[in-house]
Amino acid sequence: GAVVSQHPSWVICKSGTSVKIECRSLDFQATTMFWYRQFPKQSLMLMATSNEGSKATYEQGVEKDKFLINHASLTLSTLTVTSAHPEDSSFYICSARGARGVEQFFGPGTRLTVL
Amino acid sequence: DAKTTQPTSMDCAEGRAANLPCNHSTISGNEYVYWYRQIHSQGPQYIIHGLKNNETNEMASLIITEDRKSSTLILPHATLRDTAVYYCIVSPGPTGNQFYFGTGTSLTVIP
Predict the structure, then answer these.
(1) Which residues in chain B are contacts of A33 at CB distance < 8 A?
(2) Which of A89, B11, B42, B84 is the most exposed place for a label (fewest CB within 10 A)?
(3) Residue whose C-alpha is closest to residue A48's, from A26, A75, A78, A24
(4) Using CA atoms, how far apart are residues A47 and A60, in angstroms rounded to an integer?
(5) Confidence of residue B22 (pLDDT cuts 50, 70, 90)
(6) pLDDT value of residue B3
(7) Is B57 in the A-facing interface, judged by CB distances under 8 Å?
(8) Residues in A touching B101 (Cβ below 8 Å)
């Protein structure tokens, strides 16, 4: 149980385009989902927290207009990187938590490369 | 910001117990201690969590000191597949529950 999937696994895009990443909880209802970013040889950095049906809460320094997060259902959250630039190239990871649980379950990550 | 301190790296012989320490001296009363690990280019994998008492599951044991200022993750019989970066995180339970990752410990299991 507690499986979280991400799609796509990797994506390459041109500078200036937008990219959408999906995060799904496959076998539980995720009342809260989290998005992280990880640069090479660095730790995970929390970008934002989203509760189903509510606006996401962004961490300090994360541009909410650039990283659009939608959590429209209890099993799906999306992260859209708008007008992507090479410095946005990173490993993006989502996690999900159910209403009663205290653990977060992480997706496998999405490797974004912006050319 | 991360509220934990871990050694940067550790080695462990295959088949031996791996003991990974974590210092969280500023932990609050409502904060849990969580352990996750990340194998290269994958999402973190949940290992175990605890509040006050020691915990054990099929993967590992978690020993929390009485004052809760530090903890140790124990992998009883390390295998090569346990080579990963191990993260210790403190965070409140269902309320909030944001995870702020520190640098973690890179564990290498040696044949």
Answers:
(1) none
(2) B11
(3) A78
(4) 8
(5) very high
(6) 87
(7) no
(8) 36, 43-46
Mutation site, A50, A103, A112, A113, interface B, largest B CB count within 10 A: A103
C-alpha–C-alpha distance, residues A2 and B83, integer Å: 23
A33 near B CB under 8 A: no
The one-letter amino acid code at B99 reads: F
- Report angle CA A104, A71, B44 to the nearest 5 degrees: 25
Nearest chain A Cα to B35, which residue? Answer: A103
Give the pair of three-digit tokens for residue A11: 């994506």
**Mutation site, B89, B101, B103, B105, interface A, largest A CB count within 10 A:** B101
pLDDT, tens digit, 9 for 90 and up, residues B81-95? 999 999 999 988 665
Residues in Cβ contact with A2 at an 8 Å cutoff, skipping those fewer than 6 apart: A27, A28, A103, A105, B46
Which residue bears the tokens 């049906």? A53
